[in-house]
Amino acid sequence: MANKTLDIIKNRVSCRSYSEKKVSLKKVLQIAEAGKFAPSGMNRQIANIYVVNSKRNVEKLRKLSLKIREKDCMYGAKTIILVAGPRGDRFTFQDCSCVLENMFLAAKALNIASCWINQFDEFFSTKEGLKVKKSLGIPEEYCIVGSCALGYANDPSALKVKERKEDFIKVL
Ligand SMILES: Cc1cc2nc3c(=O)[nH]c(=O)nc-3n(C[C@H](O)[C@H](O)[C@H](O)COP(=O)(O)O)c2cc1C
Questions:
Q1: Cα Rg of the chain, angstroms
Q2: Is the distance from the beta carbon of residue 14 to the nearest atom of ligand 1 less than 6 Å?
Q3: What CA–CA distances, in Å, run from 171 to 125, 156, 167?
Q4: Helices 92-109 and 25-36 sit at what angle, rounded to 10 degrees?
């Protein structure tokens, strides 16, 4: 039986080339709101969502990427949402990952392309990166578990759902 939610889940794909068109703040906030409603370990809600949307701040992140990796790890995206929590807390990775996945699915539901970008915790561990982290108001002791690049695909026809391993699911 057709189900809209399951279709969204099964058709989400990572996008690695974004056009110049920016996603409206209204849609970005709808996506962030979906992250806010993720489950959290013992309902402690320790994940934090940092919506980096202004050109100035997004370019700060891009510059950092270009300097450290000599490439734009955000693939030209004009909005990036960083998800962070206390380093060392036993639920930080789980909580933040739930937030991120909710946001990828919400993006898909709104026809917005997205991708998990993993590099920011590493970038923020450098002297220059720490300055950027502080300038965004992210506490030094927070770990950036991941981030969600948002935008419109340069070539939507290139976004293909990947094959899944045949033995992914084991029924016992
Ligand atoms: C923990 C994690 C880290 C990831 N880091 C990156 C990344 O830094 N850059 C990137 O382009 N994709 C990253 N991805 C996206 C994966 O490469 C992608 O999900 C995988 O290739 C499957 O493709 P799909 O998302 O289109 O199904 C990451 C995904 C996860 C779950």
A1: 16
A2: yes
A3: 42, 35, 10
A4: 140
Question: Can you say how many angstroms the Cα of residue 48 is from the centroid of all Cα atoms in its chain?
Answer: 12
Of residues 94, 50, 102, 52, the one with CA closest to residue 77: 52
Protein residue with least CA distance to atom 18, ligand 1 = 14
Tokens, residue 156: 């939507």
Q: What tens digit of pLDDT does each residue of 26-82 get?
A: 999 999 999 999 999 999 999 999 999 999 999 999 999 999 999 999 999 999 999
**What are the structural domains of the chain?**
13-152 (3.40.109.10)
Ramachandran region, residue 76 (left: φ > 0; alpha: ψ -120 to 50; beta: rest):
left
Cβ(116) – ligand 1 distance below 6 Å: yes
Q: Is the pTM of this model over 0.85?
A: yes
Q: Predicted confidence band at 1 (pLDDT cuts at 50, 70, 90)?
A: confident
What DSSP string describes 40-78?
Answer: -GGG----EEEEE-SHHHHHHHHHHHHHHHSS-TTTT-S
